[in-house]
Amino acid sequence: MNTRILAAFGLLAALSAPAGAHVVLDRAEVPAGTYARIALRVGHGCGGAATTALRVTLPPELASARPMPHPGWTIVIGPDPASGTAAAPSGSTAPGGSTAPGGHAAHAGHGTHAGHSVAGGQAAAGGHGGHAAAAGPREIAWTGGRLDDAHFDEFALLVRTTAEPGTVLALPVVQECEGGKVARWTERPSPGERTKEPAPLLRVVAGR
User: Fold this and answer.
1) What residue stretch is flagged as signal peptide (predicted)?
2) What is the pLDDT of residues 112-169, one digit of tens each?
3) How far is CA 112 from the centre of its chain?
4) What values do phi and psi take at 83, rounded to 5?
């Protein structure tokens, strides 16, 4: 079995990780150039502690991202925390309220993963698919709620990607819990590797 086939198996394993083990996406694929609903599925807390906030950093290839209001939680939309600029509650919601659309994101780099391009790093700005890139990757957060360790929930987004089919996007997630506990689902596995805290991955496929 050649290296390319082994790498493909490694990518498939990363995309189909057990939902109860990590924070994962409810789907493995989205069509290019059209809107699709995705949801971050939280299967447990942090070492038994209840979840109180969930923060996801969006790669620039998600040219549009609109969070769904979640009863009991507040939405905060802001720039990538790595940029050094604090997120602001512009477009945030009171529990059960409405929200403004998520903005464009940029300044992400590309690597390779199992023969596919992988997005989600930091590099120079640029547009994709004829769409201009805006300032900086953006973070969307749900805060102020409480999800018990014994329960699971999903936090939804309506997204549109400008990436080419075959691209695999990484969406790093930080899960904050009671008692100051934090789980960082941000690792990008190498082909065939399983990591302890993998970032959710999303493969772009040809639109129908």
Assistant:
1) 1-21
2) 333 334 454 433 333 333 333 343 348 999 999 999 999 999 999 999 999 999 999 9
3) 18
4) -75, -15
